[in-house]
Amino acid sequence: MITSVPAIRGHVLPLPASDPGLLRLMAGLRTVVSIGLTLLVLVISGASLLVQVTGAMAALISTVAVSETLLKDQFRTLALGLPVACAAAGAGTVLAPYRVIADVLFVLVIFGAVYVRRFGQRGKALGLIAFQMFFVAQFVQVKPGMLPEVTAAMLVAFGCGAGVRFGLLRVTPEQTLKLLMGSFRARLRLAVGAMVELSEQEHERGQEREPGQDREPGSGSAAWERAERRLRRRIVHLHDCALMIQGRLEDSTPDARTATSVQRRVAGMEIATERLAAVLLDTERPPHTSALTGRLRELSAAVSRDWLQARLPVGLSYVRDRLLGFRENEGLAGTPFADQEALRAVGELAFSVLGLRVALGTAGSETDDDSPRTRQYREELETEELSLRAEAVPVAMDLEELEGEQGEEARKQKLKEEEKAAEPRGLDRPSTRIAFQVSVGSALAIVSGELLSPQRWYWAVLTCWVVFLGTSSTGEILVKGYRRLAGTVFGVIAGVGLAGLVAGNDTLAFILVLLFVFAMFYTAPVSYILMSFFTTAMLGMLFTVLQTYSSDVLILRIQETAIGAACGLGAALLVLPVRTSRHTDEQLRTVLERLRDVTEEAVRRLSGDQADSAPPGGAEPVPVDLLDSARALDDALDELRSAVQPLTHPVSPLRSRSQNARYVVALLDTAAYHARGLAAIAEQLTGDSRIVPDPRVASAAGRLARNLRTLTRHLEEPEEEPEGAVLPSSDTISVAIIDHPSRSPVGARVARHIQRLDEIVTGLAEPLGVRVEGGTGSRGEARL
Fold first, then answer.
1. Is residue 783 part of a domain?
2. What separation, in Å, do the N-terminal and C-terminal C-alpha atoms of the chain show?
3. What is the reported pTM?
4. Which of 38, 477, 585, 625 has the fewest CB atoms within 10 Å, counting from its CB?
5. How far is CA 296 from each of CA 276, 306, 339, rounded to the nearest angstrom?
6. What are the C-alpha distances in Å from 112 to residues 69, 117, 228, 469, 622?
7. pLDDT tens-digit readout, 538-590
8. Enclosing domain of residue 136
9. Domain count, the chain
């Protein structure tokens, strides 16, 4: 069971769905409070203004750089970061009078800071601290005689940062997970609310149609279309929150079994919500009636309670009396046919809510008000949990017998070694390639920036550095450079205006500095333009506090930013370049491989084959976690979305490729939903509840796997003719859904998922330039 948060956090207002787990809020607060405490200590001790600025920057950097999940890992990184910060600041200060030597060392520091990112979060943090503190020494222009004071200021900064992180604003992984669960419920409530709105608009639109007239795609009113867009957006937000929860379960739950159980139930709730949304958005179905709107309102009331996972019933009156019954077709007699599938989906969602509470251990504390049906479902879920956990026990026992007490650790280490062996080496390794690119770009930025301004050249270097962070292709660097420049321009405009308003009022200017620092880190994960805007506006206020403000300085920042972005783009084009088309093809191939892994494993389990896939050479079989595989598919799809941003950006001149990329990503989004649905069903079925295989479903699954392999081979060698062609999808599986004698609601959903995957993968052939067997299309270049 997940550890409770402190009582003081139990009275938190309903969590904002826009900030899952309050992660952005806490990041901004930690940064501002750390800076404030550091400045308070330094002011009381009588430190000079330059030392105060250095200490404040050190507090900011030490807070932002550390990003591990576990508190003990954060402490170790912070402890290692202090000597790194002192060494970098000391080197930057001592070598400042020797411009050429300092510039050469700066480039070497930049190379090392990027290269060590290959060592994970700690390497990334230490590299960032080294770069930023060397940069701060240049920015503040610390004198060698001030090094003792600066070192003491950094000790204060790191100490205050640690006090805030581990004391004042201490947040454990368990607390973060609990807050994420609250945000998940908030987003679920918003999604169901959007369903209610869509159903209401559908009913109003249905009244405007003539009797017997079916609804047509694209024929909705403006209000209905707004409701549709809102629902789709909220389903995406719910999915993002589910991924955040799944990514933190390992470090936030008492044991692996609890993590697996919660992961399974969260995925089940997400899939149930997506299924209900898909039914409501399906324009090929008959229009829904007003009765469905009433049931959706009941569902909305049920999921709107228990914001912080308190031990309270989650709308059990509705769950008991009506919603759960829809899952087993109870109460559907006499219901309009158009509503029946949606009501079954409502029942599945209500059941999944109860399932998550059982997994969290919050469903057994209030059984007095249970109806027989609710008690039956709770017992069914508890039995299912025990059965699923029992199936996992033999695997763990075999591992212990084969490998001894350290068997599990040895297996994890072996998997890590295998992953490491599969990583690219040499210049093909992303961290190495980017290290060379950013070093060359920074050298160009230093030279160009100093020609423009010997005092402010470091802004060009900083821009060159940041445009490479989180990017993998020249197109992504171009987009990020454009966003930074746009944010800087808007920030300069705001900075000039605010400087005039607060002129002579240093206290107000300082308060605005802290507010802008908070806004920088609160908006960073959402919008890079906003982050750049607040950064530049903050600099304007900082110059006001330092009494060095000048509009010319802010204009110079725009120029240096443009130079840095241009140098970064030039280095990306000339040094070990990675073209956008190559990068998108690689990411697309990864998505297709992950999709094939999930579907093949899910179909294998659903067909009754319990054996784990054995690797070649007689090696020990490795258990496959389907939900982890589905999460890997989602991660790969997110990387593909980032990779195609240069193509899908509104200012992209490549209109044809932009439309093609949007179409392919939309198809893969839908495919990922159906793959998650298969994975969730396969994970929740126990050994005695396998679905009876149907030859037509098996045929479609085999065709799906073959087509995915064909598309993947074509992407691996786009210049060569691939062997074979994509097999066309078949309508026979639709018959299997309807007339198979052993069909069940679950079996029908499995068949529908496979049918849609079959159609989607076949539909990918044309935009990727692969011929469909029996078709007249010709092969083209495999490129988004």
1. no
2. 46
3. 0.84
4. 625
5. 10, 18, 11
6. 24, 9, 49, 14, 37
7. 988 888 877 777 888 889 999 999 999 999 999 999 998 988 888 899 999 99
8. 14-171
9. 4
